[in-house]
Amino acid sequence: MCMKSIWCFTLLAMVFLATGICAAEVPDLLGIWTGSWSSYDEGIGYSNSTENVSIIFTFIEQDDRLFAGNITIKQENEPEISEGFAGAIGLDNKTLYIAEFDKGYSLGTIISNDEMELIYFADGENASVAIDRLHRTRA
What residue ranges do the domains of the chain occupy? Predict the structure, then answer.
């Protein structure tokens, strides 16, 4: 085999590999995701979710790497809290960027098709940070 053929084969193989990398499939987030969290809130301190508390992310719409939905937090003996959010999936198809419509942002990582971790943060009055671990319960 001549050197020219080897270079052509190598170049062709690199093109096929690059095409496969670029064509990575955007993950489908649609559905209901529930989970637990641990947090630190100004004036309250550290806390963790319990059996009597739930956080629900409902991903309602998705157009390629953009998405929108609702967050619901249910706590025993407390009124249900619900708000909308919108976000984007990073070019790596693993990183999530979310803006909540009321207050705060989340950065996240898609761990698998049915698991993700979000790190929430809000500054200013009543500042807060939380780590949410979510699992898809329904598609």
Answer: 27-138
Q: How confident is the model at residue 105 (pLDDT cuts 50, 70, 90)?
A: very high
Q: Is the pLDDT of residue 83 over 90?
A: yes
Q: What secondary structure does DSSP assign to the chain, as a single string?
A: --HHHHHHHHHHHHHHHHHHHHTPPPPP--EEEEEEEEEEETTTEEEE--TTEEEEEEEEEEETTEEEEEEEEEETTS--EEEEEEEEE-TTSSEEEEEESSS-EEEEEEEETTEEEEEEEE-STT-EEEEEEEEEEE-
Q: pLDDT tens digits, residue range 69-78? A: 999 998 888 8
Q: Classify domain 27-138 at the CATH superfamily level.
A: Calycin beta-barrel core domain (2.40.128.20)
> The whole model's pTM is what?
0.79
